[in-house]
Structures are given as structure tokens and as C-alpha cells.
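PROTOCOL LOG
Step 1. Enter all chains and additional molecules of the complex.
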Amino acid sequence: MRGKENLKKWICCGLILLLTTCTAAADKIIYVDDDATGANDGSSWADAYNYLQDALAVASESDEIRVAQGVYQPDLGGDNTAGDRRATFYLINGVTIKGGYAGPSTSSGQALHGTDPNVVDIILYESILSGDLNGDDVEVEPNDLPKVFDIPTRKDNSCYVVTGNHVDETAVLNGFTITSGLCSFIEYSDSNPYAQGGAAIRIESGSPQILNCRITDNYARFGAVLNNDSNSTFVGCVLSKNYVSNLVNISGNPVFTNCIFEQSEFGMENHDGSNPMLTNCIFEQSWAGMENRDVSSPMLTNCVFRENSYSMLNHHVSNKAVLNNCRFINGGGISNWGDNSLILVDCIFSNSGGIDCSFDGNLILNNCLFENGWVGISARGCSLALSNCIFSSTLGFFGGGIESIDSDLFLYNCKFIGNHANAHGGGIYSTGGNISLYNCIFSGNSADMGGAIASHHVNLLLLYNCIINNNSADYRGGGMDISSGKVMLYNCTLYGNTAERLFGGGIDCSGSGSDFTLTNCIVWGNTPDQVYGEAVVSYSDIQGGFSGEGNIDIDPLFADPDNGDYHLKSQAGRWNPVGQAWIQDNVTSLCIDAGDPRSAWYEEPQPNGGRINMGAYGGTPEASSSLAAN
Ligand SMILES: [Ca+2]
Ligand SMILES: [Ca+2]
Ligand SMILES: [Ca+2]
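Step 2. Run joint prediction.
Step 3. Record the structure below.
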């Protein structure tokens, strides 16, 4: 693998090329211009070769080929036969092929209007490598795409416009449009199945550099671009409107930087142990932005997925996709189906589908945001570990933020704000599985039942130090709706939740078979009631009272409940999150030091009374201080 420095150099070189010429040292410069009329020996712009193949035939190590604006076919020049579909532009070790040159504007080779023929602008002076050998292509209508391999004026096109097999990174193609390749399924009985791939660029066991190229309107079963067992580098390339896929990786470790994959069935496919590394890439307007199959492990950084039907399909055996600082906007989300893993850090799903995980999938998320989409995470038989994630204004039927079916969830420090479920569980709906929530906040969520959380038939649902406030249910369970299964809450605060039409403003646990335990909790200010149903409640402050050891019924003296601050007032000191400082009140909550004496209090700062407080901050470094010594 090349070092980072080398990669940086090439990125720089690619950028500079957009503006001016690259000044890499070349032994010999060979000129190509399709309408040059001089000696056609490649020695100057005036005497340029008409065919790129003529230049490739004489190029050797350290040569540079400059190609002026125009159209170049692989069957013309060199030893090739006009109309030969197998003719291809072979990349060569040590040779840089550069397109997008203004070239001479008059037949005498003089620049017109003072334009320097060595000026490069790959858009203005488009150098096209075209597989349309007979020049008879017509645009393929979207409905005709599945039939494209049978269209006569396409079947006569090049099978591989460019080939980079067995070359190394000194083989460079820079600044071309590559178009009109077609790899037909029928005509080639090559023993290599991937012979049906690479209509635009076929790379097998190679590692060329493809820079600033536009690859469009190519057709193949295995990718307009095929990287088979290859470690190619792509920088600044746009792959657009190719069918079936813009690009297929089969094993290998290709690198993509500043590339766009758009308007195809598949933006990129990764098969058979592919480990592509992508940075600053965009996947848009495809059926699937990226598909991973068979032990592939793409690593993406700063990438954007937008307006795809699926952003990513991670399925068919043991893939592991790692995404860092990626965005998903206005489209389908990620489907993780089967024994596959996803690791997402600092990712945002906005107006987008979230993550759909089924059957033994594994998700690890840190610091991710799901906003305004359809269900943040839907999990069936998966395991999920989430930390510092936010679900905001997402919408679902069962579970607005998370729908969990027979899955194991571990959530730490996550927030569910303003999500909605048409049926149950505005924040989370869970059935089956084991779920642990630590330091989580559910605020302003809504549903028919279970405004924040609906839990039916779970094996175990555990909440520690959670805040459930201002959620609402149309019917019952403004905060939580629980039926069947074992549910345990420790040091949670439920405040201001509403069951509009029935009961269980805070918690409805009246469903049959529920085994519900509430310890060290504060349930206050919920409408029309606090806890409805049978529950084992101890060392908790329940408005209106609840039978059980150590329970109290007294105003908990929250710091500022109207603004979501449920720290307990204390003359000895209370953490003020607004001012980020400890302050003192003129009253002291009786919930301080009123939790279960057997509960661990030692994380509470001194003086902590040697006993845990009730409520969401009990037992934590933000527990209000005690007037009593330890
Ligand atoms: Ca020209
Ligand atoms: Ca044609
Ligand atoms: Ca205490």
C-alpha cells in the first residue's frame, strides 16, 4: 500500500489539474488530438497522433500522453481492427495518460484566442474515451435499461473501454470521460465470470490510479467499473448513470476519495472480502447507494448518502461496515440483514430511513442522530449497543425511535425527543429480548399507548437513571405502557406525562402478566394518575402515595421541572446544568438520602449522607448534596 503522503500528493495533483497543468516530470510527452492534421507522430500538438492507441503503442516508462478534447475509440490506431469489440485502452506502468487539454484550435497548431493548448479543463475540453465504435448509440430510456444488452446499436460497443489488469500505481489515467462500454452476458464465454464486468474500466489484480474521470452510460453485469482483486485508487471521479452498477469491487482494498456514485441501480457493490476505503464520497439517487456481500468490510469517512431507495444494503454473510461522520439525507436508510455488523460513529440520519436490522445483526453506534425520519432503528433478532445517540422527531407505527423485536439492546446516555408512534411506544417499542437503558432521557414523545416506552412480553427491561418527562399517550401509559414481561426501574424520574383518555399517566402496568418493580424512583405530576396497576414499589416518591417499603408522597422539589431540570433542590448544594456549577437552594428535597439503603451511593459527591437519593440523579456524580455527613 502506498503511504498517506503519496495519496495526499495525488489528491493535490488532481485538484491542481482542474485549474492548470500538472508539472510531474516526464521523459517524453506524446500528444494526441483527434483532429490534428500535421505529421501525426505525436511530437507536438500540431503533429499530434489522431488516435490514442498510436500513442499507447509507443509509450514507455515515465512518458506522459496528453490528449486534447475530442472523441477516442479503442478500436482505432495501434494494431487494432476497426469495429473490434475486444479492443481496449490498456493502462501502462509508468505512463500517465491525461485528458482535458484545450489542444490546438487551428490546423496549424496555433492557439485560437490566445488559449494555451496545454490548459486543462476536463469539462470545457472534454476528452472522451468512447466504446460506441459505430457512432450509432442513442440514449437508453430508463424503462429500456433491463433490455440494454439486446439493443443492436449498443451490442456493437466495446466490451471494456479501458483495461488496467496487472498494472501498479504508476499507471495513471487522469481527466477523461469514459462512456458507451457494454459487457454483454451472452457473447463471451470467458471462464472468468467477472469478464462480464468493467465495461468502462476493467481492473483485475491491478492498482492503477484513476483521477478526475467521469464514467457514464456504460452497461455491464458486474459494474461499469470492475475492481477484481485490485487495490486501485480513485480520486475526484464521478460515476453516473451506469447500469447495473456504477462500480463493483471483488476482494481487494481499493481507495476512493472525493468521488460521486449516482443514478444507478447500485452506486457501489462490494463482494467477496472487499475492503474499500472511502473518504468524502457521495452516493445519491440510486436504488442502493452501496451493497455489501460476503465478508466485505468497507470503511467510510465523511460520506453522504442522499435520495437513494436504500442507502446501504449490508447482507449475505459476515460483512462489517464502519462509518465515521457520514450523513443520510432524504432517502432510504441502511438495511442490515443477517449475520452482519455496522459500526457508526458521529453519523446523522436526517429526513431519512434509519437502520433496519434483522436476524443476528450487530449494531454499534456512538454519537449518532436520527431526526425527522421513519423509525430510527428497527431491530428483529439483533444486538444493539448505542451510546450518546439522539432520536428526534422520528415517526413509526410500533416504536417511533426504536422498534425492538426479540433483540438485545444496551443504550447509554441516549435521548428520545419528540418522536411519535401511531400505535405503541413513541420512543421505544419492545417485545421479547433484553433491554438495558442507562442515563437516557425520553421527552415529548407520543403514541396511542406508551408515550415514551411500550414494553410487551420482554424478557427483561431495565432502566437506570432515566428521565421520562412530558410524554403523552392517546389512551394509556403516558410515560410507559407495560404488559407481561419483567420490567425494573431504578432511580428514574417520571414527570409531566399524560394519558389522555384512560389511565396510567406515568406508568400503566395493568397489562396481564407484568412483573414490574420500581425502586428509588420519583413519579410526580403525571396526568391523570401516576402508576396504574400492580407493581412492587419501594423507596420511591409517588404522588398520591403507593404502598411499599420506604415510599413517600411529598413534593420532590425539582430544580426547574418546567424546563426539564429534575435535580433535587438542596441547601447543601445542587448541580445546575444551565450555569454548569453547584449552587445552593433555600430548601432541601426529602428525596435526598431517601433511596434504598442497600443501593450503591458512592458515586454521589460529598457530602452524600452515605445513602442514595431518589430520582434520576441518585447514585450519580450529579446527585444533590446532603445536609448530613456521610
Ligand atoms: Ca480535438
Ligand atoms: Ca454503438
Ligand atoms: Ca445521598
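Step 4. Note key features.
Residues 9-23 have pLDDT under 50 and may be disordered.
Residues 592-593, 601, 604, 608-609, 611-613, 623, 626 surround calcium ion (ligand 3) (CB under 6 Å).
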